[in-house]
Amino acid sequence: MATDTGQRPASAPSSLRSSGPSRYADPLFRAIAFTAGASVLVILGLMIGTTTRDALPVFEYQGLVSFFTSDEWRAGFSRTEFTGEYGAFSFIYGTVVTSLLAVAVALPLAIAVSLYINRLAPKRLKRPLAYTVELLAAIPSVVYGLWGLLFFAPTFIRPVMELLNRTLEPVPILGRLFAGPVFTTSYFTAGMVLAVMILPIITAITREVMAQVPRDQVDAAYGMGATDFEVMTKVIIRTSFPGIVGATMLGLGRALGETIAVAMLVGGSQRWGLSLFFGGDSMAGHIANTFQDAAPETVLALIAVGVGLFVITVIVNVLARLLVWRIGRVAGDAALRRRP
Amino acid sequence: MVDNTQAQAAPTAAPAQTGQTNTAPEFTPRHTTVPREVGEAVFDVETVSVAYGGAPALKEVSMRIPKGEITALIGPSGCGKSTMLRCLNRMNDLIDGASVSGRITYHGEDIYAEDVDPAEVRRRIGMVFQKPNPFAMSIYDNVAFGPKLHGMKSNLDDRVEKALRGAALWDEVKDKLNDQGHALSGGQQQRLCIARAIALEPDVILMDEPASALDPISTLAIEDLMRKLRGQYSIVIVTHNMQQAARISDRTAFFTVDMEQGVRVGELVEYDLTETVFTNASDQRTESYITGRFG
Ligand SMILES: Nc1ncnc2c1ncn2[C@@H]1O[C@H](COP(=O)(O)OP(=O)(O)OP(=O)(O)O)[C@@H](O)[C@H]1O
Ligand SMILES: [Mg+2]
Predict the structure, then answer these.
(1) Measuring from atom 14 of ligand 1, which residue has the nearest CA?
(2) Domain for residue A2, yes or no?
(3) pLDDT digits (tens, 9 = 90+) for A159-198
(4) Less Cβ crowding at N or C end of chain B, within 10 Å?
C-alpha cells in the first residue's frame, strides 16, 4: 500500500483501480455471455415444451404404444377433434432402415478413404483429397436430393438394385431384404445417397483418430515384419476403434435427421415393406412431404412424429456416448495404470 | 591378437553407478574370449552411406558384425548410430526421403536386393526401441502378435511362455497374462518388448538405447538378459552409456560426426574388441570420447 516516504501524491493508489469505460468491459462481457448461454437452454426448453404439449393429445388419442407400433396412418381433416389413425411405425421403420443402410455403406468407405489419405496417398495428394472429402459436407441436401433423383438413382443405384435383386432374392431368409419389385425411389436409394452425405463427417473423424495412432506402435508392428496391410488392420484400425465408433454414431445421428434428400428419394408411400427396394417414407421425410396440406389435427400428429424422431435421436446419441465412454475407459484405464 | 587370454578376469559385475567424476571414469570392460578377427559374420556391411532427403547422415561405413556376440554402437548424438541400426533391418525404408547406398549382406544374402521382401527381413531381425512400445493389448496378445502375424499358430501358449521366460519376465507376469501390457512398469514393458521380439524366433536382435528410459535396476535386469541371450542371438545395441557398452559388449564400434565441407556427416572411427576400444584405443577421437574429453 502507501509507502512511508510520503513522496507519492495522495491520488497514487487510485491508479490501481481500472478507470474509464474499460472498467465496465468485463462485467458487460460476462452478462452477454451469460445471456447467450442461457438463451440456448431457454430455446431448447421451449422447443421440447411446446412440441410435447402439442404431441401429448395425439399420444393420448392414439395410445403411446400404438403410435410407435401401428403402421396404420390415415390423416384426418378435422379442425376440432381427432378423427384419423396415427400409427407411425412405417415412418420409424423407414428412418431406421435408411440410416442403417447409409452407415453400413459409408463406414467401410470412410475407413478405406482415411487409410488411403493417411497412409497410402502420395504426399502431394493428401491435403487436396482430404479437403475434397470434406467439401462433400458443404453441398446442400436439396442438391443431393435432386442429383440423386435425376442422376445417381437412375444411372447407378438402379442397376445395382437390379443386380442385387437378381442374385440375392433366391437366398432363403436374406432374400426377403432384396425382394422385388424394384422401385427407383426406395429405402435403398435414399440410403445410398445418405451414405454419400454422411461420408465426410465419418471420414473426417476417422482420419483424425487414425492420424493420432502413435508412431511407435506402427514402428513396432513393422519391426516384427508386418506388411502395410497388416499394420493398417491390426494396429491402426484396432487402436483407433473407439474413435471410429464415435464417428459412426455421429454419422448415424446425421442420417436419422436428414429430411429433404430422403423425402425426395425414399418413395413417399405411407406403408412399409421388408424389402430394401420398397418405396416407403421416413419420419422427417413424411413431415416435410405432408405438412403443407395437413389439417390441424394432422399437424399435431406430425408434430408427434417429430417428437418421436427427437427421442430416437437422443437415444442414439446417449448410446453413442456410453459406447465411446465405455471403450475409451477400457483403454484409458490401461493408460492410467501405466507407470512412468 | 590382442590380450584376450585373461580367462580368470574379474567378474563382469557392474562397477555400479560410479564414474560420475570429472576425471576419466574407470572402466572394467568384460574380458572377452572371442578372437579379434570376426569369424562368422551375421552382417557384412560394405561402404554403406545413408542420406535423408539428400542430406548425408552416414558416410561409407564398413564393418563385419559377428554371429552370436554383442556388438555395441557408441558415439555422440547425431553421429548416425540409430541410422546404422535401422539399415540392418530396413527400417529406414519407412522414413520418407531416406536413401541407403552400399551393400549389406545378412548371412551372405544382400538384404537390399530387388527381390527381397523387407517384411521378411524384419521378421528375422528383431528390433527393440528406445521407448518401450507395447501394443495396447494384453501381455499375452503382445507376445502372440508376431507369431500370429506369421502363421506360427501351433502351440501359441507354449511360444508365449517360452518368449516370456526368455525375456526373464515370466515369473513376474504369469498370473496376469490378460492384463494390459501398458500396466507394467517401464522396465517390465521393455522386457515385454524383448519377449515380443524373441517370440518370432529371430536370429538377430537390434536394440536402440533399450535402457535409456529405465531406472538403474531395470537397466541391470536388461543387461543381465542380454548376457543370457548372447550366443543364441546376435545382438547389436546402440547405447549412450559407456559403462553399459563396456560391461556387456564383445565389440564396440565408435562413430563420430565429421564436418565435411560444412556438412555434418557421421562416420565410423574405430571398431574393435570392446576391451581394446576402452583400454587401448587406436584413434585419438575414440579415447577422448570414452574418457569424457569429447567436445
Ligand atoms: N527421420 C529422419 N529424417 C531426417 N533426418 C534424420 C532422420 N533421422 C536421423 N536424421 C539425421 O541423421 C543424422 C543421424 O541421426 P541418428 O538418429 O542416426 O543419430 P544417433 O547417433 O542415433 O543420435 P542419438 O544418439 O541422438 O540418437 C542426424 O543428423 C539426424 O538429424
Ligand atoms: Mg539414436
Answers:
(1) B80
(2) no
(3) 999 999 999 999 999 999 999 899 999 999 999 999 999 9
(4) C
Asked whether the beta carbons of residue B196 and residue A224 sit closer than 8 angstroms, the reply is yes
C-alpha distances out from residue A109 to A209, A316, B256, Å: 16, 22, 49
pLDDT digits (tens, 9 = 90+) for B231-273: 899 999 999 988 899 999 999 999 999 887 778 899 999 999 9
Calpha distance A278→A97 (Å, rounded): 11
Q: How many domains does chain A have?
A: 1
Segment among A14-23, A41-50, A108-117, A329-338 with least mean pLDDT: A329-338
Q: Which of B122, B142, B179, B196 to mutate to test the interface with A (most CBs of A within 10 A)?
A: B122
Tell if the CB–CB gap between B149 and A214 is shorter than 8 Å.
no
SS3 call for A303: helix
Query: Which residues from B are below 8 Å from A339, CB to CB?
Result: 184-186
Interface probe for B, chosen from A224, A241, A330 (most Cβ of B below 10 Å), is: A224
Residue A190 domain-assigned (yes or no): yes
Number of domains in chain B: 1
* Ligand 2 centre distance from Cα of residue B85 (Å): 9
Please give the ipTM for the structure prediction.
0.84
Is B154 inside any structural domain? no
The predicted structure's pLDDT at residue B20: 40
Ligand 1 centre and the CA of B266: distance in Å?
A: 9
Phi then psi dihedrals of residue A178, to 5 deg: -115, 20
At residue B24, does pLDDT exceed 70?
Answer: no
- Phi and psi dihedrals of B103, rounded to 5? -140, 135
User: In this structure, what CATH number is given to the domain that contains residue A237?
Assistant: 1.10.3720.10
Q: pTM for the complete prediction? A: 0.80
Residue A279: all three cell numbers together: 418405396
Mutate to test the pocket of ligand 1, among B48, B50, B81 (most ligand atoms within 8 A of CB): B81
For chain A, the maximum distance between any two Cα atoms, rounded to a whole number of angstroms, is 103
Alpha carbon of A238: minimum distance to chain B alpha carbons (Å): 9
C-beta atoms of B196 and A340 within 8 A? no
Nearest-angstrom CA–CA distance, A293 and A280: 19
Q: Is A217 in contact with B120 (Cβ distance < 8 A)? A: no
Query: A338 vs B182: CB contact, 8 Å cut-off?
Result: yes
Can you give the residue range of the structural domain that contains A229?
91-293
**Which residues 6+ apart lie within 8 Å of A274 measured at CB?**
A176, A177, A179
**For residue B111, what are the domain limits?**
40-133+202-290
Nearest CA to ligand 1 atom 4: B52
Q: Give me the phi and psi of B268, to 5 degrees please.
A: -85, 120
Chain position carrying cell 452478462: A31
